């Protein structure tokens, strides 16, 4: 097999593998397809959920919040009460949570054979997204939208336009170009002068639960594996509507680059296969041997350009790339081929389980089946089925709570002099291009200043909300008593 030897490489864009709609899709300005729920795999404090609440209220859909790490169900419930939002299912995901639906035979054994650096970080993102899928199936929801708690600047119109694409695609995502949604290695490629695009992401993704969908494996780039089959069949859509991601500094921890490397290799290698017009059956040890060589060349070329980055970042970029290279040298072609084989076997098992999931009578019944508990809305049955969707109305005596600013807006206002003006994506050839590779303002390291500015403003804002609510209640009781 020599068909791949000339063409196999790490691609700087996969835009051709996600299509931009087809004739017959609902018009962009139409009411369009109904969205049943927004699902948020949350880890940050409750105030970060503001954007999800705003979108769910506008879409008149349910909101599912899966809590862990710095996000606790009790705090979320208090926050939602302060915003007079009742259409939410709040779930505390216990540490180490498991369920037979999410137990697979093949992948855990392969995971134990990964380089030690791939276990440096532990995340429950894949589990949360899988729970969201199964919960949607149990509640009879058809269309859901995954939204990470660090995604901002999605208008209701853009949300609806992306959901409308599910008339033609099994999944459709948005374009997170500012701050770019890339791996650490790809950030390094961009900042050192390389050409680097972004792709559809699970951070802002509409999914049709009645289509042939996969699951999210417990690995970095789990979203790329989730919609790989959709991309291979031309059923993955990209609305090319812009969403933004909260700023962070990618090179703060070199070990994260090593942790990401195996997932990055798998995802980039599988999508490089699609660029060659081949299917997953061609992902043999021979193929992976060739792709690993191409990946090594890509990393070494990026490392050789490290002096193109701003001087205060060069050492950390170099350390991150060296960490990724060290991990890459421990990844063998056989390991990649065995992972793909195990993943495909587990995917078949998942689809059999998926087909057997039955619709439950209530939210509590669904969560009991999954061994989870919830802090439900006041009337869970109002948000159970699409035909019984909740209508968000304001009752007498409620305080109109102003919308939070986004973290980016707060941080830019609080540290405008040090950060400078925000970086915006340009438009080229009818599509938004990624940020220019030599514009380094987006990588300036101000996370502490941004976080401090955010917490000051958010704390004051929440205090004002509670004071307004308390004053209104006292005033209302006074009027009743008189």
Task: Give the helix/strand layout.
Layout: E1 37-42, H1 50-59, E2 62-67, H2 73-82, E3 88-92, H3 106-111, H4 125-138, E4 143-147, E5 151-152, H5 156-164, E6 171-176, H6 184-191, E7 204-208, H7 222-226, H8 228-232, E8 236-245, H9 254-275, H10 285-304, H11 311-328, H12 333-356, H13 363-369, E9 374-375, H14 407-414, H15 416-419, E10 427-428, E11 431-432, H16 447-481
Structure described in brief:
The protein is α/β, with parallel strands linked by helices and 482 residues long. It is built from 16 helices and eleven strands. The protein has a single domain (15-388), classed as Spore Coat Polysaccharide Biosynthesis Protein SpsA, Chain A (Alpha-Beta Complex), CATH 3.90.550.
Mean pLDDT over all positions: 82
Beta content: 5-15%
Low-confidence stretches: 22-26, 376-438, 446-450, 474-482
Rounded to the nearest angstrom, the radius of gyration is 23 Å
Number of helices: 16
Could you give the order of strands across the largest sheet? 5-8-6-7-4-1-2-3-9
The helix-and-strand class reads: alpha/beta
Question: What is the CATH domain class?
Answer: Alpha Beta
Topology pattern, helix = H, strand = E: EHEHEHHEEHEHEHHEHHHHHEHHEEH
Principal-axes shape call: globular
Would you count the extended β strands for me?
A: 11
Question: What's the helical proportion of residues?
Answer: 40-55%
Annotated CATH architecture:
Alpha-Beta Complex
Domain count: 1
Intertermini distance: 89 Å
Major β-sheet, in short? Answer: 9 strands, mixed
Q: Give the CATH topology.
A: Spore Coat Polysaccharide Biosynthesis Protein SpsA, Chain A
